[in-house]
Amino acid sequence: PPGLYIVATPIGNLGDLTVRAADVLRRANLILAEDKRVTAKLLAHIGATAPMQVYHDHSSETDRARVLARLGSEAVALVSDAGTPLISDPGYKLVRAARAAGLSVHTLPGPSAAIAALTLAGLPTDRFLFAGFLPAKAKARAEAVAELASLRATLVFYESGSRLGDALTELAERLGQRDAAVVREISKLHEECVTGTLAELADRYRKTPPRGEIVIVVAPPAAAEPAGADALDEALRTAMVDES
Ligand code: SAM
């Protein structure tokens, strides 16, 4: 049926393409991609031959209007280079426009590095904030991190290897002593999850920037310290017992 299909694709291992995603990509009349060469490899792998067109959120309104004009009568799939479209990737303006025009939008859930990293890190997952990429410039990055400092949630960032050391240093300085994980190359040959405090991780990666694709996961701030007189008495008693 016609409409816009948001199709998640693998973030490393081609085996993670869902059966439904392959089916929709094979049947689509048009596939919107970030980079045609990247998507061509995936299409070749599943024997899909639909025509491709480049789409970005900064594509012009005219381009978007042309795509919208086709959605009423054709099946158009949106993919990104890897993972779930719209998650630190193009697509939301197109979805918004399709909805505003009363056209149907379907999503095909699948891999996303943020969720995959959360499942590996061993940090609380009941409440998390996906913060995407930190700004590249030092001042903007410091402000972005400061804004997150008091949030009682696990934080998830996308990062590149070359900036990882700087990002971890900033996080260690502004968020204090927290557990964290650097998750790398998920679902690929060199998949790795390194855990430690932010300071330990900053130290490690400042010296040797890692290769590959990276997600940083940071634990929430520790629960508030006990502050009342009773709690203080209790803390003192425990400390004295420990010394004897
Ligand atoms: N839309 C994608 C998703 O759903 O995961 C994310 C796109 S974003 C432009 C690319 C970033 O995702 C990379 O810089 C990296 O931080 C993260 N990423 C993508 N694939 C990854 C992988 N296999 N392992 C770790 N991080 C990955």
Automatic annotation (TrEMBL):
Keywords assigned: Cytoplasm, Methyltransferase, rRNA processing, S-adenosyl-L-methionine, Transferase
Localization per Swiss-Prot or TrEMBL: Cytoplasm
An MF annotation (GO) of this entry: methyltransferase activity
One Pfam assignment: TP_methylase
Gene Ontology biological process: methylation
Record-listed E.C. numbers: 2.1.1.198
Broad class of the protein's primary localization: cytoplasm
Family classification: Belongs to the methyltransferase superfamily. RsmI family.
Job description of the protein: Catalyzes the 2'-O-methylation of the ribose of cytidine 1402 (C1402) in 16S rRNA.
Xref: PANTHER family: RIBOSOMAL RNA SMALL SUBUNIT METHYLTRANSFERASE I
Descriptive protein name: Ribosomal RNA small subunit methyltransferase I
Gene transcribed to yield this protein: rsmI
